[in-house]
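pinning this so it doesn't scroll away 📌
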Amino acid sequence: IDFDLILAKVKELNLLAGEGIAGIQLRPGGAQLRQPEALPLTLYQDGMVMRDQPFRPYRDPAAQQCLQDIIDGYFPSELQHCYPDGI
């Protein structure tokens, strides 16, 4: 696993998703700045955890697909059901 490559790609995706840029959320009587929702990704020597999902070893096909999506410059396809309109 090339952790440096994965971290670099995650940083690129974070910028695309608007990291550091607040949005405006309308509320009754005004508006409030809103930061984009974080999607935690923790990489271990032998596996990974994304969001509130259980630990997945890197030999797990779903973990491999997730990392390949990131390396290819895409948001993980497994997030499509949670974010059908995109990030």
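📌 and the second one:
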Amino acid sequence: MSVDPMIYETQFFGFTPQTCLLRVYIAFQDYLFEMMLVVEGVMLKKLDGIPGCKVSPSQIRKCTEKFLLFMKEHFDKLFAKMEEVLLQLVLNIPKNVLLPEDKVQEQYPYSKEEFEALQDELQQLQQQCRAEAALEQALRAELEEQKVVKAELEKILQCFDGLESICREHGASNFKESFAVLTQNCKKLQDVLKEVEEKSKKMKLHDQLM
């Protein structure tokens, strides 16, 4: 069996020529085995009808096997010649023949170096596309975060607007000054609260000692 991959022929036929010939060989061989079994059965029937025949079925089987081996050896030789002819003249595409789907290669021929350069360029473009897709995804995520922050800022601004309105209702025209005074008052309240907590602790300690 030929070991030539015959890639172009496989592209055209849709199967490897070697596979086709192997199936043909197996089909012929199976038919030969079946034929020998039929011949053996006929011989057994014929001999069984002859009075005084001393030929046993085991002897018939030995003769059948010898004849089968003889036929197989000759068949293999004939098939080897047939395989050579089929691979060269029937299942072979000449070197000067170009398949229709490969016509574009004739119009736009490329050398091996040019093809490898195109492959490298294609890989670079694929990497750039993946990087741009990742960047786009990151930008989308950042945009979503900005939307959330913007919504929170709008809530804070609404809160400040409310505070400013309250200050105006109570006669405070400058919200910044009012906010500063409010901050100072809060700090004073925190100091007073801290002083009260310390005194409370001292009084509890005094009561425990008494």
